[in-house]
Amino acid sequence: MSEVTHVNDGSLPLVSIVTPSFNQGRFLEETIRSVLDQDYPRIEYIVIDGGSTDGSQEIIRRFEDRLTYWSSEPDQGQTSAVNKGFSVAQGDVFAWLNSDDTYLPGAVGEAVQYLRDHPAIGMVYGQAFYVDETGEILAPYPSGRTSLRGLRRGVTTIPQQAMFFRGKLWRMVGPLDPTFYYAMDYDLWVRIAEVSPIALHPSPWANFRIHVSSKSLTAAYRCWPEMMRVHFRDGGSVISVLYLKYLLRRLLEPVMPWRMKFRFWRYALANKRQSG
Q1: Does domain 15-211 match CATH 3.40.50.2300?
Q2: What is the pTM of this model?
Q3: pLDDT in tens, 128-181
Q4: Rounded to 10 degrees, what is the CA torsion of 117, 118, 119, 124?
Q5: 22 partner at 20 to 30 Å CA-CA among 77, 93, 182, 239?
Q6: Which of 135, 117, 22 has its CA nearest to residue 78?
């Protein structure tokens, strides 16, 4: 385990990025490099591994001289790992990047510049691409504008991989709820949006990897029930747009994977026609 170190150059906001990981060795190096290769000079990078047995520790050690902090020990899962990482973070801007996703070049610098240019905005998110195991683009992520009202109506058009928010907001409304498995990001977005405006920057910042063991394919059914927990916790009722969407989602759950596959097929067909 490494010791916490600090970046001394105070000319720009410090960005704290946490990568939670567990047995994602085949993607982990690409994720790490996508952070370390950013052209933004003030990043503290924290990698929290859950005690992987697939060689992930060896990958992390190859980069440890460029990491602010890392650990590898059993934990309670992704949510716990993100909380652990942010507990040692010192940044002015926070983000987390899962160990199978990647940043696009320039993403961190653009996010910081947006937050500096818009001091009233507490969280900014960019656009993203779905990519496959090899990094080939499958389709654009359906990013879109939303707000506290939109989130409470189920407008969750935020790619978590492309999200950056002010560290002071984490200290106000964090940490993530460790009882959430899937919708911990939605829960955080709601809590942030309750105290600060959020905004979309129409620029691609990240890749969202889809593969056979990704949670987006294997456990998406857990998302909406957890969103309903947030809804009822915050005083929502069954007479609401969000609850109606939840009921419809339950009915359509068996076909939802096909909806994503159709999106990928349509994008591939459009590219084929364009190139032909």
Answers
A1: no
A2: 0.93
A3: 999 999 999 999 999 999 999 999 999 999 999 999 999 999 999 999 999 998
A4: -110
A5: 93
A6: 22
